[in-house]
Every structure is written in C-alpha cells, then in structure tokens.
Amino acid sequence: GENVEQHPSTLSVQEGDSAVIKCTYSDSASNYFPWYKQELGKGPQLIIDIRSNVGEKKDQRIAVTLNKTAKHFSLHITETQPEDSAVYFCAASGDNFNKFYFGSGTKLNVKP
Amino acid sequence: DGGITQSPKYLFRKEGQNVTLSCEQNLNHDAMYWYRQDPGQGLRLIYYSQIVNDFQKGDIAEGYSVSREKKESFPLTVTSAQKNPTAFYLCAVRLSGANVLTFGAGSRLTVL
Hints:
The complex is a heterodimer of chains A (about 110) and B (about 110). With about 110 residues, chain A is mostly beta strands.
C-alpha cells in the first residue's frame, strides 16, 4: 500500500516568516494530494489540494508544489500569522479516492 | 464540521468493555470513513463504507467493527479485542466521485 512520510514533525517560526512542510509518497498510482489543517480539539479541514497533472497551486498565502518524478510534495505558507498555528497533515489518494493515506502531521507554531 | 455529528465527544471505558462511537451525517454523502489518530502517527484508516450495507477494512481494523444500515449513519464499535484503544477517533464523509474528505469533530476515547 501507499506510504506517506511527512517532515518536520514540529516547526516553529516567527510571525511573518515562511513555513515549509514536506511529504513524500511511495505509490506512483497516487495522483491526488490534499493538505489538511487541524486546530486543537477539532477535526482536520482541507486547506489546499493538488492533482498530479499540476506542478504548483496557490491560494493567497498558501501554496503546494508537486514533483511527481521524485514523489514529493510540499506546503508553503508565507507571511505566517499566529492563527496559522495548528497541526498540518498531507495525504495521498488514487483515482477512485476510496482511500486516503495521511502523513504523520506537522505541528506548526507561529510566534507573535 | 457542519453536517457531521460525532458523539460522544469524550468517553471513558474500563478494560474489557465494548464501546460504540456514533457518526451521523446530513450531507447526503455516500462514503463514510473512520480514522484513528495517535500522537505522532497521523491518521490511520480503520474502516470505510462506499454504500449502505457494504464496508471494507482499512489498515488497522483488528478489534473494531462497523455497520452501515443507513446512509446517514456509520457507528464504530471498539471491542475488548482492541489492545490499545485509547485514541482520538475521527469520522469523515466523501461525496461519491468527489475527492474531498470532510471530517467530524472527533471522539476521544480513554480506557481506564
């Protein structure tokens, strides 16, 4: 089955700095890569996603890049704010979206 | 989390007891999922169901059971056979053919 690895496990940045979280996957059949944000005591929420036919996608301060050849994808958050503090998960899924495989999570702390 | 209700939010149980976690949705989504979240291990799939009266084991199904008698309900029973049941349990739903997982707020189970 698919194996998704995520780094780092914790990340601390100063407000206004950028944050980058990286994931790798093992199954070349995976072609959909969402990112979820989980705030304390809540369920994860989708913040951005990318399909394998696209190399980069942006939505305001967040962006995701995908290198299909190397089987890795990254989340970039620019101009970080304290409300960006949360746990972020990457995930991978195949064509039918039946199963999603998640990374181990990154706890992002944005210091004011 | 709107449209997905998980209950109870917190649950304590003694060793050897079965416990059932509820997941109800009013989004009319076809697929429903149960994930287990442990610190540093991300989200691991327990069971999923694509349609009523049908469900498949995920990666860590041992010690758990589910039913899908109604489209809107997908209860998870944590049996006494589950060796380490203390965890945060997340229910998710997905519209058939779509790629977005929507999560509930979660249930935290503690075995005393």
